[in-house]
Amino acid sequence: MSKKPKVIAIVGPTASGKTSLSIAIAKQFSGEIISADSRQVYQGMNLGTGKVTKEEMAGVPHHLLDIAKPMDVYTGSDFVKDATVALEEIKMRNHLPIVAGGTFFYLDLLRGKMQSVPVAPNETFRASIADLSTATLLEMLYKKDPQRAATIDSANRRRVIRALEIIDALGAVPLYTPTESPYEWLILGTEITPEALHHNIKARLQERINAGMIEEVAQLHEDGVSYERLDDLGLEYRYIAKYLQGTLTKDEMLEQLETKSRQFAKRQLTWLKRDNEIEWFPPKSHEMIFRFVESFLTE
Fold it and tell me: pLDDT band at residue 1, thresholds of 50, 70 and 90?
């Protein structure tokens, strides 16, 4: 029996060093990187998503960046289809596939740990809960699916409604049946102290503001992306949109965005800590990581 092709995935909270580590591993082991980020697929969303620049790529091929328009909705099913194609193409070139990004639901789908749920939008159901507060909707979700409620973006009303809609359509919380992956996975986690993480979040936010993140969001709106859609796109786009509409001052926007980013990182860690297959390393301990990867690739 032939061995399964090997794939590396890099996970960790936002601002923990996933991008730079993925590029270092790719350069060391002839790799190509597949982005597992639900927002970096969209064109024109660069600073707000922390999208890797051409300079930062250092010649390493990257896949699934800038492949959708921000007015469209890119789904987990779309990701599995596109990522599978990219994996096969990278394998045919005898290069190492490296999946890196902060949308861990996408990665779990690709690994066969979870399954996407093909439930069509139900406008009648949505109308029936439209007048309920987001806090009330979250309470409903906690009662019906505590695990999903613990990891969902609690400020993203659309996602909360979608989760409740899926539960309503199926009559019960869906049970995921893991499937065997055709690949052998090594999952590396970027381990970082809370203090360092909070420092990185604050510093990165200011860097992006200075680089023109507010102007990026304003340009997206000018190009036809509605404020409602910007709210759906989460965090940076939601709070900068509020600032552009005059409902938040700049200082309020920055304060709320930093707080929400910290909370998001905490939810990401909650999601990751349930996965005992993750091997955790300080992201800058390259030599130690390289030895670990070498052992995985040669065993």
Answer: very low
